[in-house]
């Protein structure tokens, strides 16, 4: 059975969601963040040298990195249903969003996370990061438009990859109103029974509260 090394409040929630959508059996091995530093416990380093989550162990291999895990699981269990065919004209767009999530969307969010506690000395850099985040959100909003999902009517793994950075943006109140496409996308995925089951199994996931 697939084991998921799952850190609370983290990207590995995405993997639980995919496993639920695929209807696979899996076991969760839980790790709790240090409440002060938010870092993963050292025990995760015994699973993978970087000590980050998600990591899966399916008996044959131990694999880290969300997008790699998603692709691996789809290759073995996806039945061709979670991505356009490689020969399809739409495949490059799918590929783009699969990589955009960790390659571009997360970067300014991490910068904000690290710069905020610095306070005044980092104020100018933080302002630049906020501009970057707005540019990114405007772009995603325009790309989503009124489509239900990133690839149109059908949920694909690109939506699963994009869920975490968009959740981590924590759009609330006026900001949520300014991005109706993203807000509706998040509401749509959060309403899915598989997403709900993954939440129940994964435990507390503050980014969507
Ligand atoms: N690009 C990697 C990022 C992995 C990552 O940074 N995971 C975070 C959880 S959201 C983590 O384990 N943080 C704890 C730590 O750095 O100690 C992926 O998508 O899997």
Write the layout of secondary structure elements.
Elements: E1 2-7, H1 12-22, E2 26-31, E3 55-57, E4 62-64, H2 66-77, H3 91-115, H4 123-144, H5 157-168, H6 173-178, H7 180-190, H8 193-202
Parallel strand pairs: 1-2
Antiparallel strand pairs: 1-3, 3-4
Helix pairs in contact: 1-2, 1-5, 1-8, 3-4, 3-5, 4-7
This protein binds glutathione (GSH).
Glutathione is lined by residues 7, 10-11, 39-40, 51-54, 65-66, 102.
Averaged pLDDT, please? 95
Which fold name fills CATH's third level, the topology of the largest domain? Glutathione S-transferase Yfyf (Class Pi), Chain A, domain 2
Order of helices and strands: EHEEEHHHHHHH
Low-confidence parts lasting 5 or more residues at pLDDT below 50?
Answer: none
Bound molecules: glutathione
Q: Summarize the main sheet.
A: 4 strands, mixed
Distance between the termini: 31 Å
Helix proportion: 40-55%
Rounded to an integer, what's the Rg over CA atoms? 17 Å
CATH architectural name of the largest domain:
Up-down Bundle
- How many domains? The number is 2
The CATH class designation of the largest domain is Mainly Alpha
Helix-and-strand structural type = alpha+beta
- What order do the strands of the largest sheet run in, or round the barrel if closed? 2-1-3-4
Number of strands: 4
Shape: globular
**Helix count, per DSSP?**
8
- Strand % is 5-15%
